[in-house]
Design brief:
The protein is mainly alpha-helical. The protein has a domain at 4-17 and 154-252. 59% of the residues lie in helices and 5% in strands. The protein has a 5-stranded antiparallel beta sheet with strand order 1-2-5-4-3. The protein is elongated and about 115 Å long.
Length: 453
Amino acid sequence: MQIFQLLTQIARIDALGKTSVVSLGWLSRVIRSIIESVGSVGVGIILFSLILKAIVLPFDVYQRISMSKQNAKMKENKDKMEKLQKQYANDKAAYNQKLMEMYKENGISMFSSCLPAILSIVIFIVAINAFNSYSRYADLNNYNSLVESYRSTITTNAPEVDESTLKTGNLEGGAYTLTEDGSGQYYIVVDESADTKSYVMYTVQKPDTAPENAVEYVKNAEKTYYVIAEKYAAARGLSAELSSDAEKCAEMVKNEAQLNVKKSYEDEISGKMKFLWVKNIWQTDASFKHPVLKYSDFKSSLNELPDSAAAASPYDADSYETITAELSAYKTKANGYYILIALSIGTILLQQFISMRTQKEQQKYSSADGSGAANQKMMMVIMTVMFAIFAFMYSASFSIYMVTSNIVSLITTVIINKLVDVKMKKDEEKRLQQKYDNRFPGRSYQKDKKSKK
């Protein structure tokens, strides 16, 4: 795309075509609504994470209570299970069959917590997709804002367009040919009230079905803006030499537009993307990612657009480099320092460790040779590696979601385990008291126990 072309004393500047937006799914729209209502993107994501966690909390509580109860029942029957392990040490199939029979007899169900676990996995996958979609939306939306900042500088002096300002006629043979193929399908908008020819002119499109002289201003058409060098130089107090050099004036207009883009980024956009040490929350919290994307990374945001929209002039490589020319420093600056990635890995590792302790008895007796604990440790390593990959692949916003969700899960797990332990102890005391009452009616188990000391 040729950005500038010298036409006599008129410099042509491409103001780019129509921008587009990514359509969001319902969950991504919820994320957007929360972020916009709170005003801080990081706080909005934390709030969304807490709301989502509150919705699934009853299922999470049910799962953890079930796990704790099953583990307690297995403790009660550990002598039987140890006997089975010794008896069928060399026959895993027979051990598993006898173990299932013993589970059934004692009301132990290994699948009572499966449904909540499956639900958690489904929600996790849906959350990944929602954050990924919203990240692309945010990247594209922020870039569109930069395009508008660039365009606003170009169009500052553009006149209002109405029927009275339209000049009709075929201009393909004139000095200001408006289409490279000379088709004459574009016309110049002229302010007829202007005293001189020093005014901004820009194009309108003639519909294919319109009569020869029918000209219509098309707001969504790609426009080419013509800036008269003399007018631009006079408005800024530039020298007569510059006023006679349209190409230099055009370069100055472009530079002015790019500086306006930089100002817009630093004053408005960067603040909306920043959270704590992360400069762009929609990118990974890592030094190999940058606050302003390179074009190769930005292209992934265009995958959500229809092909026709993605191919529009604002989104090609030349336009992207023109728009972001003054943001080069932000294309190499580290976006983060891996802190959220480390927190994601650390919290999931701690969560897995606590879960393993909760299921200690299940791990011990789940196989004839007692290898269940080793398998569980291997699963913990796999889960940790998987979450680490997710943290590196996806945005810092998703890492914030993972850390928040993991911390809430840790707190609820510890509280639930404590409450279940207290309840189990009380139930055990009641059972022993009942057993003691059967042997010694009217006597207190606890008091007699203390008196023996």
